[in-house]
Amino acid sequence: MSNRLKSFSLLATLALGLLLSACQSQKPAPAAPAASQTASSADPWWKHAVIYEIYPRSFQDSNGDGTGDINGITSRLDYLVALGVDALWITPMYPSPQVDFGYDIADYTAIDPQYGTLADFDRLVSEAKKRGLRIVLDLVLNHTSDQHPWFTASRSSRTNPKRDWYIWRDGKGPGQPPNNWLSWFGGSAWTFDPQTDQWYYHYFYKQQPDLNWRNPEVKKAMFDAVRFWLDRGAAGFRIDAVSRLFEDPNLHDDPILPGKNAYGDPNIEHKYTDNLPEVHDVLRELRQLVDSYPGGPVLISEADEPNIAELAKMYGAHDDEVQLPMDFQIADVNKLSAADFRRLLDEVENNPAHGWPEYFFGNHDQPRPWDRYGDGKHNDQIAKLMAALLLTPRATPQMYYGEEIGMRTTAPARKEDVKDPVGKLGWPKDKGRDGERTPMQWDTSKNAGFSTADKTWLPVPPSAAKVNVAAESKDPNSILNFYKRLIALRRNNPAFRDGSYISVNRDDPDVLSFLRKNPAAGDSVLVVLNMSASPHTLSFDLSSEGIKEKTVRLVLAAPELSSAGPISLDSVTLPPFGVLLADVH
Length: 585
Ligand code: NOJ
Description:
With 585 residues, this protein is of the alpha/beta class. Among the domains are: 48-146 and 216-458, Glycosidases (TIM Barrel); 149-201, Oligo-1,6-glucosidase, Domain 2 (Oligo-1,6-glucosidase, domain 2, Alpha-Beta Complex), CATH 3.90.400.10. The protein is 27% helix and 16% strand. The chain has helices at residues 3-22, 56-59, 70-75, 77-83, 118-130, 149-156, 216-231, 278-291, 308-313, 328-331, 338-349, 369-372, 379-391, 421-426, 469-474, 479-492, 494-498, and strands at 51-54, 87-90, 134-139, 168-169, 190-193, 198-201, 236-239, 256-260, 266-268, 298-301, 324-325, 358-360, 396-400, 500-504, 511-517, 524-530, 536-538, 551-558, 567-568, 572-574, 579-584. The strands form five sheets. The chain has an eight-stranded parallel beta sheet. The protein has a six-stranded antiparallel beta sheet with strand order 14-15-16-21-18-19. A three-stranded antiparallel beta sheet has the order 4-6-5, with no helix packed on it. α9 links the parallel β10 (298-301) and β11 (324-325). The two termini are 37 Å apart. The model is unreliable at 1-33 (pLDDT under 50).
């Protein structure tokens, strides 16, 4: 270990010690190494990591142009270390016309100048590494920008060598697309190109033509891009829209479902464009590729799988595809329902692949959890409840920048201010995703410390006056400090780190309770989450789990308890939306 690393780990240990003594539990737990220091294949680093998603446009602007950038991220690494996260997933920062804010890529092996340079990226990786943080990149395999040279060549003539890199078909008749497939972002998934008198397919915007993954040259080009970033130190990839890589070559029409979507199109089942079995062949090869690199790079899949069986397939029949499929089933429970969360957590625990779960509640496509789950009255407390639900089960948690301070969804008030084309098309029913992409709120200086520009790419929400890192750092009861305590516990408490998940008091409709059972002789932790606006007094019989004691010791509670004395398992009281974590033996 270098001297620099040694002094860093000393500081980190000291900080952790201070943090834990601020927690209500006075019980010292044996310190475990940070996820970043454990990387054997039997116990891979990503199982113990907290992954933090950064939307680079909105995290920190370093050059005063109103848009976040790579050097901005580098300047905030110490904050992320203090928060306790282990890996940063950064959404696309490659050259792009920014129609879909980076998910329309025009060059897979460069950095968009508005975010910086490759040298800036290299510096980010090396500064992150010094601090024990890993950098996970976004891998957009399904489509490119229509400005990518591959597509401009492809559309130039029917005989261009790149023609077959995309999906071109004749229409059904004049002005009629080849079939009824619909874009996720509204309207037909086919756009007519008069230059060659054919239609091209795009699952997303028409500026995002789908690649033809049946063409081996496409795979080769993409895998070369993957190598490029792994060679530069990327610790893995979050794979965008991966279930959409293949389409039915016979172009069957999708089944129509009742009702209409926000764009006024009929609802359809994306039966012939989602989850085709060929996806798994690509994932297996991709896994082999990343496995050939040292350090155990991780693959995280973005795939809103319709059920646990489909989700489990993402791990691969022989644990040879994605290590961490993002669990949209859980993220999409858009209400506080102990019964729904219990059922889904159980399902994931028992998934047929025995794969390791990955949970999240916030990201750049979803309204922020603070208001999505908030009831308008207890939102700060509910944000802590959701933090506990994210950080205490047996899973890798993934959080979204600003979630740790309770940032609110702040959608544009007027259609003319909308930046996200989803909002432009769907207004007013769907205001788009700008609301969850507003600048990070650091302090009370100009633009909440995000930028010195006169105008930022999205406005800084008015809530920044109170909801910001500086203010919450000083408040021991803040959402930020609650996240820090939970993250420290995950790392430090063996039951959270390695314990199994056992659902208890299963009939309770309002309170979700589970045990993180210590695999060794030490204490386990009982997690009790009141998902209702009423106080609840519960009793627990944990004897079938080998728990003999009838009184337990507080580890952490929100709101804080008036006394830190022992708690009887016969009478555990939780206030509305209360969180209680207790040591049991
Ligand atoms: C999923 C990404 O998260 C979203 O932001 C994007 O618009 C689509 N994929 C298309 O790439």
